[in-house]
Amino acid sequence: MERFVVTFARGFGSGGKEIASILAKDLGIHCYENRILTLASQLSGLDEKLFQEVNEKVRKNGGFSSFMKGLPRARNYIARNEKFVSDDRLFEYQCEIIKSLADQESCVIVGKCADYVLRDRQNVVSVYIEAPRAFCVQRTMEHMGVTEDVAHATISQTDKFRADYYAYYTHGNYWTNPVNYDMTLNSEKVGIKDCVKVIEQYLMIKGFITADDIKVKGE
Fold it and tell me: Could you give the CA distance from residue 41 to residue 214 in angstroms, rounded to a whole number?
């Protein structure tokens, strides 16, 4: 199996992380999301909390924290939604980790502008997962145990953080631009498991894997 990387961008609640995890398991490769923050912390010698604070967020005056005060809290989910923060050096450490992973192994990387960081490499497949708001709201309510209002607010604000982060570090590109990706999939219409199958088929078309890779690794 030739070395390759699959990057995932995803709307909140769309199931993108789940699709990425299933794909990685099927292929017997690692799936990296927040573990990149741990590796970046180890590389830099800086506290991992610093990387968590800028995880797919950019600095901005004001922020989301005041807005969230008016919403009911549930299962401490708001801990991930702090005010905008940014540190270009921390992002550079993350980029070093992403490039190093791509140099060393086949893997799946979720978020972190990985499609942009690896844009000049021929062995990268970039995927964007999205779904209608109602589908994302329902999944968020089920997975996080929150009310419908809180689910709507979480989706809106998290997606805004991700969009602003992407625009900042890609110098004005926009996160949902289909030109950024090899494919964009609607997880409600296609289905979570079938999204995985579609991506696997594309990897076979590109010559990165064979049917045997899926069958053997998935057992």
Answer: 33
> What are the backbone angles phi and psi of residue 60, rounded to the nearest 5°?
-160, 145
Can you give the chain as a three-state secondary structure string? CCCCEEEEEECCCCCHHHHHHHHHHHHCCEEECCHHHHHHHHHHCCCHHHHHHCCCCCCCCCCCHHHHCCCCCCCCHHHHCCCCCCCHHHHHHHHHHHHHHHHHCCEEEECCCHHHHCCCCCCEEEEEEECCHHHHHHHHHHHHCCCHHHHHHHHHHHHHHHHHHHHHHCCCCCCCCHHHCCEEEEHHHHCHHHHHHHHHHHHHHCCCCCHHHHHHHHC
Separation between Cα atoms, residue 152 and residue 136, nearest integer Å? 9
Q: For domain 5-218, which architecture applies?
A: 3-Layer(aba) Sandwich (3.40)
pLDDT tens column, 75-114: 333 333 333 334 677 788 888 989 999 999 999 999 999 9
Domain-wise residue ranges, the chain: 5-218
Q: What distance in Å separates the CA atoms of residue 102 and residue 19, rounded to the nearest whole number?
A: 20
For residue 174, give the amino acid letter. Y
Report d(CA 15, CA 194) in Å as an integer.
12
Give the whole-angstrom CA distance, residue 42 versus residue 61: 29
Distance of CA 101 to the CA centre of its chain: 16
- pTM of the model as a whole: 0.81
The whole-number average pLDDT for the span 53-66 is: 49
Cβ atoms of residues 65 and 49 within 8 Å: no
